[in-house]
Design goal:
By secondary structure, the protein is mainly α. 62% of the residues lie in helices and 3% in strands. Zn(2+) 2 binds at residue 170.
Length: 384
């Protein structure tokens, strides 16, 4: 399933790849990590500080980890306190907290190396799709997995897959969307036949790192392959173009009241829905956090639009800085994407967290509406 991939034929898309041969696996090493490769990765794993592996966190970062299950967890502050290592620190902490490192007999050095490589495969120059977003989604996924219906039903394998999928769900994201890759005839669009292009790439990149680090190499081959396939199934569910498909299936289960959490396939589907919620939960965060995410994702849209204008391509919807604002983009996103999804999630898991998320989204939407009205009023008053 790992076909050789060629370099992009479009020099303006700032992504480059080189092929790495590791045993019988060809994987892509992103140019991002090639430029910023850590001293921890190449031949010196013994230099990893043992106090980090022992989870002896100090100061404010450790205090924050004690409240990692709080919905108002400030991932931006946590990223600063960990010196830009929020994804590594958070994911390692959660895996260790669940006892998964010991249960699955994960080699500590391999695990740390894997997490470092995952974080470095995210593009730090992306305003939105970067390692901090992945850390935020991982923290949200943890909150959902602690909900009563899930906490009493999920197996250790479910939890491991859920956390790994959250951490890797946007791995090596180029900062542009699928339609952009398709209309520029990018090699990834060709490779994945214009279907879930980014999600397939995130999944295959994650599998490449798992194999390169040998994180699951001690498991039976069949178990390792099953883990890779289920990881892919979770990541592929984050394709926003398939939103209605998943939402309709979710709604049907709820209408028929036939969701059975003792059924492995049903649990997997709920993990898919949880990851989908975690991926787009920014409108459900407190305003101070939600506003920052809104501005970051909009800036990434606008940067794509500027690339399209520069190369005389049709500007994608929402990507024209002159025709859109953060507010109108967010209001549309909440109305047509986020609200329908989180309304169904609240039907499935009617808890304090679900009501809190819906409450925040309502207040945030009202804030953006007010901001738009203020802008229009100011514009009208200022007219000659």
């Amino acid at each position: 399933g790992f076909e050789p991939e060629r370099r992009s034929s479009h020099p303006y898309l700032c992504i480059d790849f080189r092929t790495l041969h590791s045993e019988r696996v060809h994987r892509l090493l992103s140019f991002q990590r090639y430029l910023h490769s850590s001293r921890l990765l190449r031949g010196v794993p013994q230099q990893i500080p043992l106090h980090i592996l022992d989870e002896d966190y100090t100061g404010q970062a450790r205090c924050m980890l004690e409240k990692v299950g709080n919905w108002n967890f400030d991932i931006f502050l946590f990223d600063r306190l960990t010196n830009g290592n929020s994804l590594i620190t958070l994911t390692f902490h959660l895996l260790n907290q669940y006892g998964l490192v010991e249960l699955f007999q994960l080699d500590m050095v391999k695990l740390w190396r894997f997490l470092v490589m995952v974080q470095e495969d995210y593009h730090s120059d992306n305003p939105y799709h970067n390692a901090v977003h992945a850390a935020d989604v991982t923290q949200a996924m943890y909150c959902y997995m602690r909900e009563p219906l899930l906490a009493k039903s999920l197996t250790s394998c479910d939890i491991l897959l859920g956390l790994l999928a959250a951490a890797t769900h946007d791995l090596d994201h180029p900062g542009v969307n699928q339609p952009f890759l398709i209309k520029t005839d990018h090699y990834l669009a060709t490779l994945y036949r214009n279907t879930s292009v980014l999600e397939n790439h995130h999944w295959k990149s994650a599998v490449g790192l798992l194999r390169e680090t040998g994180l699951f190499s001690h498991l039976p081959a069949e178990d390792s392959l099953n883990m890779e396939r289920e990881l892919g199934s979770l990541i592929l569910a984050t394709d926003i173009s398939r939103q209605n498909e998943y939402l309709s299936r979710f709604r049907l289960h709820l209408d028929q009241e036939n969701m059975c959490m003792s059924n492995a396939s049903h649990r997997h589907f709920i993990l898919q829905m949880a990851l989908k919620c975690a991926d787009i939960c920014n409108p459900c965060r407190p305003w101070e956090l939600s506003k920052q995410w809104s501005e970051k994702v909009t800036e990434e849209f606008f940067q794509q639009g500027e690339i399209e204008k520069k190369h005389k391509l049709e500007v994608s919807p929402l990507c024209d800085r002159e025709a859109n604002t953060v507010g109108n983009i967010q209001i549309g996103f909440m109305t047509y994407v986020a609200e329908p999804l989180f309304a169904e999630w609240a039907r499935f898991s009617d808890t304090r967290l679900s009501q809190t998320m819906l409450g925040h989204m309502g207040l945030n939407k009202a804030s953006w509406v007010l901001a738009l009205l203020t802008e229009r009023t100011t514009f009208c008053v200022g007219e000659p």
